[in-house]
Specification:
Shape: globular
Largest sheet: 6 strands, antiparallel
CATH class: Mainly Beta
Radius of gyration: 12 Å
Keywords: Metal-binding, Zinc, Zinc-finger
Structural class: mainly beta
Number of strands: 8
Bound molecules: zinc ion
CATH architecture: Single Sheet
Strand order of the largest sheet: 1-2-3-4-5-6
InterPro entries: Znf_FLYWCH
GO molecular function: zinc ion binding
Domain FLYWCH-type: 14-63
Pfam families: FLYWCH
């Protein structure tokens, strides 16, 4: 993974990719867009064919990173 990327599982069973505290949600196939794309943020990333590695990353955001807290269960919740 590039940077400090990791997959995180949310309480609603959704999986996001977190990179340097910013989160990306799946758009289609290997493409993930910033979770705050609705605010006009253009950050995005692309995974390799196995969907385990980031092969391209645009981590320029127009907002502060969202704050997530990891519960004892391992699930993440947005604060
Ligand atoms: Zn963003």
């Amino acid at each position: 993974m590039l940077g400090n990327a990791k997959f995180i599982l949310l309480g609603n069973n959704k999986t996001l990719i977190m990179v340097d505290n910013y989160t990306f949600s799946q758009h289609k196939h290997r493409y993930y867009y910033c979770s705050q794309r609705f605010k006009g943020c253009q950050a995005k990333l692309k995974l390799d064919q196995n969907k385990t590695q980031i092969v391209s990353l645009c981590n320029e955001h127009n907002h502060d990173p969202p704050v997530y807290k990891q519960m004892d269960s391992g699930l993440y919740f947005k604060i």
